[in-house]
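Entry — protein

Goal — fold tokens:
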Amino acid sequence: MNRSLPLLAVLCICTATLLLNVATGHAQGAKTLGDVEQQIQDTSDQLRALDEEIARSNELKESLVKSFNEAQNKTGERNERLQGLDQDIERYGQRLNALDLRLQEAEEGIEARKFLMAEVLRNSQSIGKQTALKIVLQNDDPAIADRLGVYTEYVLAAQNATIEEQVAVLARVQTAKDTALKDRNWLNYLKNKASKQRDSFASTAQSTQKNLGEVEAGISEKTRSVAQLRADQERLQALMEELKTLQSSESGYFVAGKGRYPAPVKGEVKARFGDIKSVGKLRWDGLFIEAKLGLPVRAIADGEVIYSKWLQGFGNLVIINHGDNYTSLYGGNREVTVPAGQWVESGVTIATVGDSGGQSSGGVYFQIRHNAQAEDPESWFEPNSGLQSASK
């Protein structure tokens, strides 16, 4: 069996240590119950102030989240508007290109008609001169010349009408172009305005997001502070309870029963208080009572369970505070049946015999401590406690 766990390991988990510190005026920096109560009040005041700050920060956070979402939505709306305007401007650009082409074609048509009219005029004048001369020299019929003149006038009138129609078309196309240019200019104005609005909303969203991050960081920090203060408050509350317990626990009850307590379990004592351990020069601080696995382990006296779980070197451990800074320890159990904080009476089953402390056989490691110092447990047992000495 190796039960060489240092004494400090037990002192760290025993409330007896806390009570010893309180008794000497060093527990948590507080010397009196009034000091602890004042610390609890101060902590409560700090918690209340932090809770109010967190509430205000949460309200600000909600407002910032709302503003951020609104700015994001408006930015998205402006982006969609800009996309639509770009498409409209593109369509107007295509329309203007088509109108420019039509204008060019109309202008070319007019020029062609004008050239054709000039040719007709030149030809008609030439024909007219030749015909008149021919009539004089050959004595031909003058009616022919008249008909040629009429035909020429018809041709010229038709060409002139065509030119006038082309001019009208040109005017309409030019008007359509001017309108398209005006509309595209208006669309560019709307695009620039929407772009500025989009940039403004985006800037607002970015600024709001930054502020939101700062507020959330502040809330997180305050929340951590609240958690720490609540932990401190619980610690101070526990300390105050310990102080009250200390003030009221000096009853002499446990000492009065010395020499009349039953053993926690019946069995054979394999190691006694003060025996040298098998490893090194360490000595036993209690008894190791070998017993059958599963047997009930009983509290030797009334008290409060202050520790009830596994501990390195002790296995499943139960510690009972009996008042007056006396504690009893029960280690190596298979299972514990009472939780920390429960009041137990003498003889109540608190665990079952096991080998969880690393021992090679089933049994209970038992100690009695006063002010965190181990005492010989056998001096506290009744003569017929049911313990047997180990065979030599």
Summary: Confidence is low (pLDDT under 50) at residues 1-31.
